[in-house]
Amino acid sequence: MTETVDALAGLVAGGGVVVLSGAGLSTESGIPDYRGPSGAARRHTPMTYQVFTRDAQARRRYWARSHLGWRMIARAAPNEGHRAVARLQAGGLVEGIITQNVDGLHTAAGSPRVVELHGRLDEVVCLGCGNRTSREELDRRLREANPGFDARVAAVNPDGDVDLADDEVARFRTVDCTFCRGGMLKPDVVFFGETVPAARVSRCFELVARARLLLVLGSSLTVMSGRRFVVRAAKLGIPVVIVNQGPTRGDGYAALTVNAPLGRLLPALADRTAGDAAAGLAGVGR
Ligand SMILES: [Zn+2]
After folding, report:
1. Fewest CB atoms within 10 Å of the CB: 4, 44, 214, 222?
2. Exposed / middle / buried, residue 262 (Cβ in 10 Å: 0-12, 13-18, 19+)
């Protein structure tokens, strides 16, 4: 791994790095990567915006599963990979972070200036009036509306990746917006079939255009919403480096691809660049 770290450090040490992160960075925090190496084992079809808004039964099933899965997300803590990115940023090498993750773990690791491309799971938006509330508050309301639900289901699905029986779903009570009284609530994340707000996309393109290097961490770049930044960087002649376990759909644009576990590689990279900077300050030639 030393050679890999050397090669990466050589590229990152010049600064101006923009990070594009995906699910692979959060798997070591216990959040499943449905599109990564284990993607073939995906058990559930992702919810689309169209189904969520039009099908009351599907929406009830979504909230019932999400209500239980939320415990896992709420408990998740940043891992060594997130912390290493925050260190690179504190060291002035990383200019900005674009993340496809909705878990908020970059921010929890202390990174400022994170563009959360697909939103955040800990926020809830009303599709009727646009009011935003915290997921914590919704969690409390859902628990009150469904006494005993958690305990019954948790006994069957301790890992939080929930398969719910139809009768459990049928008994689950969803809740509506209290602000406009009756508006439909949705996690403030971008569902499949939904577009990322244009202003947010523009901010990302601006970040990429100013980058000296685009560093992709833990994304298979399956969906265009993330891959377009790789394509843009390549068009602008900005080198792209991809660190991911397994091949990605952006490999053809990359100057360097690295297949390594992020939780080990990134701390080594942060140590190495910090060491180089310290050596430079001390005037020590190598
Ligand atoms: Zn509302």
Report:
1. 44
2. buried
- Average pLDDT, whole number, for the chain? 89
Residue 70 pLDDT level (bands cut at 50, 70, 90): confident
* pLDDT of residue 35 exceeding 60: no
pLDDT value of residue 196: 94
Contact 196, 188 (CB under 8 A): no
Give the distance (Å) from ligand 1 centre to CA of residue 175. 11
